[in-house]
């Protein structure tokens, strides 16, 4: 019992300490940096102003933000509609096969995602596998230009992020009590109606966490846009990276990063508010 | 028990000291040094080389400054960044007494204003940024100037370096200006000129632009001569054009960051790279020009006379070396952001 308490404490202290050092402190530093200014001698000159946030409000920066949100929204949507049926089937599959299927979802993680992104260029380029197969089948005469397009970026992001959608959805669907569904059918709901009114609300936590896990990295994964999109800055992640490494305007990059975090928090709050209200109405 | 612990501690410290004396951390451009050079060096000296790579001077500078010139033992900045890092005290002076092969270097490339007396740097390789074309494509084959890149036939067939000065240099040269123009108004003018070109760009790449050229993704690429050299070796349809308006020349230099841990090893490695046979091998493999006269003398005829590696003196006259822009760099950076985002 005493050992158990020690173990518990060690785990909690370890995790909290880890988060404090590697997540909380860096985020605080980014937050502070967003109010500073920069000079040619130092990346960050201490001070306080909202100047960087004001600069973010100009047309160019807003356009980057909007196009990035749009692209990531599309990626999240594609992941959701692909992952949902898959997770549903997975949750109903018998035990040994289910384990194998889950393993197959996780296996790509054994290879670094940057390497996998480079591997996609071998599939997509003009003399790549996809074009060669399509041409030898006579479907197309000339190679399709797939590399360095927004479509390639979306494909790369969906491929990389799909497991992050599948796993929370699977967890939610597996917990789903099938008796609710039977009750809905008994009370005369069509399968469609039962799906929308029963299954979707019950798996909403899984949907929300899956969307969060896909949406935020979808904005930030700059290397996918670099490798598959031809480094034509499209994602907010590329913009932030360029501020830190190329133009060395750290405070502006920090401000962009903080803005993104605030946006995400606002969206979560909105979800919680509406979920709480819906819960009350239902009660 | 206590004695055992002490012994263990001693062993640990000794092994760390040993490891420290046998390691070298190199931070280099990607595709700039053959792996076999590092392996041979380790075989000969027992010093283990760990190499990581970057794709722009800006990235190198930001990293070095961020880690307070610690962590890496050897870096390879271009001239303009040698000047800047030297002024900011980010570089350690070289001990020339440890560089026996220094005399092999071309005196014309030594003691230049960016680093008088080569106190902090020795040239590693030099080269040009010009245009590689795939002559199979008629529109690409006719390219002889930077201005040709604006032709509508080349839309979607163009690769540009993911490098601020490389891209802005094209606009400045097309206006007949210097690559090192410091008047913000003129830089802005070059920027306006470049803006419509962005719609023609298929990809920005400074890591391995030859890939897109060899995979037929692009027909025209503005790139470094070494990349063109390798691409032309694999595909004989690829030609390297020195544009009429002029083009950029650069020298990359071996430097030791101020707070490097393995300064001694870095000197041993620099001296190794200055050996004629090593420098000649690197030059043949990578296709950039060596500043090492003794190495140039032993290069095979076909490399020494290759116009991609060594431009003719007529072409060379149109080349211009990049220098540190000082505060004028702000105008360049603003333009680069505009080009990449609009």
Describe this structure in words.
The complex is a heterodimer of chains A (283) and B (342). By secondary structure, chain A is mostly helical. Chain A has a single domain (59-282), classed as MetI-like (MetI-like fold, Orthogonal Bundle), CATH 1.10.3720. Chain A is built from 13 helices and no strands. Chain A has helices at 2-33, 51-56, 59-92, 95-106, 113-124, 129-136, 150-175, 178-186, 191-202, 204-220, 222-229, 236-245, 250-282. In chain A, α12 (236-245) packs antiparallel against α13 (250-282). Chain A starts with a helix and ends with a helix. Chain B is of the alpha/beta class. Chain B has helices at 2-21, 35-45, 57-66, 79-87, 138-141, 164-174, 184-194, 209-214, 225-234, 263-273, 276-286, 293-297, 301-304, 313-316, 329-341, and strands at 23-29, 48-54, 74-75, 91-92, 122-134, 158-160, 201-204, 220-224, 238-241, 247-254, 256-257, 319-321. In chain B, the strands form 3 sheets. In chain B, strands 5, 6, 7, 8, 9, 10 and 12 form a 7-stranded mixed β-sheet that branches. The longest helix of chain B is centred in the N-terminal third of the chain and has 20 residues, at 2-21. The interface between A and B is medium-sized, with 27 and 30 residues.
List key phrases describing it.
heterodimer, A: 283 residues, mainly alpha, MetI-like fold, B: alpha/beta, D-Maltodextrin-Binding Protein, domain 2, 7-stranded mixed β-sheet, 15 helices, 12 strands
Output mean pLDDT of chain A.
Answer: 89
Give the SSE order of chain B as H and E letters. HEHEHEHEEHEHHEHEHEEEHHHHHEH
The proportion of residues in beta strands of chain A is under 5%
Give the tally of β-strands of chain B. Answer: 12
Mean pLDDT of chain B: 91
Query: What's the story with the biggest beta sheet of chain A?
Result: none
Q: What is the CATH T-level topology of the largest domain in chain B?
A: D-Maltodextrin-Binding Protein, domain 2
For the biggest sheet of chain B, the summary is:
7 strands, mixed
CATH architecture verdict of the largest domain in chain B:
3-Layer(aba) Sandwich
CATH architecture classification of chain A: Orthogonal Bundle
Give the strand tally of chain A.
Answer: 0
Query: What is the CA-atom radius of gyration of chain A, in angstroms?
Result: 23 Å
Low-confidence stretches of chain B: none
- End-to-end separation of chain B in angstroms reads 69 Å
Helix count, DSSP H or I runs of 4 or more residues of chain A: 13
The DSSP helix count of chain B reads 15
**Fraction of residues of chain B in helices?**
40-55%
Oligomeric state of this protein: heterodimer
CATH hierarchy class name of chain A? Mainly Alpha
